[in-house]
Write a structure and sequence with these properties.
By secondary structure, this protein is mainly α. The chain has one domain (about 5-180, about 190-385): MFS general substrate transporter like domains (Growth Hormone, Chain: A). It is built from 15 helices and no strands. It has helices at about 5-35, 40-70, 70-90, 95-125, 130-155, 160-175, 190-200, 200-230, 235-255, 255-260, 265-285, 290-295, 300-315, 325-350, 355-385. Pfam families: MFS_1_like. InterPro entries: HcaT-like (IPR026032), LacY/RafB_perm_fam (IPR000576), MFS_assoc_dom (IPR024989), MFS_trans_sf (IPR036259). Keywords: Cell inner membrane, Cell membrane, Membrane, Transmembrane, Transmembrane helix, Transport.
């Protein structure tokens, strides 16, 4: 079997799942606001449920994957449950039921992206190719979905959000049956080996410091749709903004093999942090949605560079036997804890002040995180000297 053919199911899977994920990330906040009439604070609660579910879900499924030495079978279980619970979520209207079924939906969806990335990293290592060339298909799926679904919802109404969600989700499930599992580690995973991850001080400090930057990223993910609508934009314009951002992200992932190994991984994280800081402070003073869209090209230079560099750094810090668990731990910090803090913080700031004020706060978060990573990098260099 050729490399190209063997990777086609994985690339298609990433395309389909991230296309599904777009709908959750880009349009659920608008759906909750416009169709269900929730306030900014209530939307923050619903969005915080997702990362809270991820805190429980990702370590659990990561451990199960390492223990039973399969990613493929876990993905099939997760996607089947996700589709069932999402049907219920999109058909409930009281806040209590929305929160309950949001928890179940996120419990099964949260680990899927992490497992897809972990599988892509392992397959890339096996075939000696760039992780970014595989992962870019997730970004392409996200970009295509954001544009197409944005147009669809502008024409048909936000209340029809369930149909594209089920379409892309079902495609991801079908393709999951054709995935190739990564070569399992010959060592067996135990709770003791997982405990070693928490005793790794370099890993723990790195995750703590980077979290200031990832909080700013996840808060923007949750509220950029509401921000654009607040500035006078439509669902279609929200889709265009995501499309511009994610196409720049896909370009960074696709070309990673040419630039990524040129400098120390932490230098890329510092550059991304500086650009995040500039990006958020600019968003804090903008009042035209089209200017926001113009600046969305920075998404590739911030998120894609940060994610690629941090994922690579984490991979080199952890033993192979707990790589699935380690990658899920990274996802838990990047998308989970950061998402909870961002969602709970962002809603009240928008309710009491404005979306512009929220982005100014995010600028300070990114700035603090960047300074901490610079200190971390300097201390590591001093210790090596």
């Amino acid at each position: 079997m050729s490399q190209h053919k063997s990777l086609t199911p994985l690339k298609t899977f990433l395309f389909a799942f991230f296309a599904t994920n777009t709908i959750i990330l880009s349009y659920i906040p608008i759906y909750l606001q416009e169709d269900l009439g929730l306030s900014g604070t209530e939307i923050g609660w619903v969005l915080a449920i997702g990362p809270l579910a991820a805190l429980i879900s990702e370590p659990f499924w990561g451990y199960m994957s390492d223990k039973f030495k399969t990613v493929k079978r876990i993905l099939i279980i997760l996607l089947t449950a996700l589709l069932l619970f999402s049907v219920v979520f999109f058909n409930v209207y009281s806040l209590g039921l929305i929160l309950t079924f949001a928890f179940f939906m996120y419990f099964f969806s949260a680990p899927v992206g992490a497992f897809g990335d972990s599988l892509a990293q392992r397959r890339a290592d096996e075939l000696s190719i760039s992780f970014g060339t595989i992962r870019t298909w997730g970004s392409i799926g996200f970009a295509v979905s954001s544009l197409v679904v944005g147009q669809y919802l502008t024409w048909t109404g936000i209340e029809n959000i369930i149909w594209p969600y089920l379409l892309f989700g079902s495609l991801a499930l079908l393709v999951a049956f054709r995935l190739t599992d990564a070569e399992p580690s010959k060592e067996s995973v135990s709770l003791k080996s997982v405990k070693l991850l928490f005793q790794n001080k370099r890993l723990m400090f790195f995750l703590l410091f980077i979290m200031f930057i990832t909080i700013s990223h996840r808060t923007s993910d949750s509220f950029i749709g509401i921000y654009i609508v607040e500035l006078g934009g439509t669902e279609s314009l929200v889709g265009v903004s995501w499309f511009v951002g994610v196409i720049s992200e896909a370009a960074i992932f696709a070309t990673a093999a040419f630039w990524f190994k040129k400098y120390h991984t932490l230098m890329f994280i510092i550059v991304a942090g500086v650009l995040y800081t500039i990006r958020w402070f600019l968003f804090g003073v903008i009042h035209d949605p089209w200017v926001v869209i113009g600046l969305q090209f920075l998404h590739g230079l911030t998120f894609a560079v940060l994610y690629l560099a941090a994922f690579d750094y984490i991979t080199r810090l952890i033993p192979k036997v707990v790589q699935g668990t380690g990658h899920l731990m990274f996802h838990t910090v990047f998308f989970g804890i950061s998402g909870i803090i961002g969602s709970l913080m962002g809603g009240p700031i928008i309710d009491h002040y404005s979306a512009n004020a929220l982005y100014t706060v995010l600028g300070f978060f990114a700035l603090v995180g960047t300074i901490l990573i610079i200190i971390y990098h300097v201390i590591l260099n001093v210790r090596r000297a």
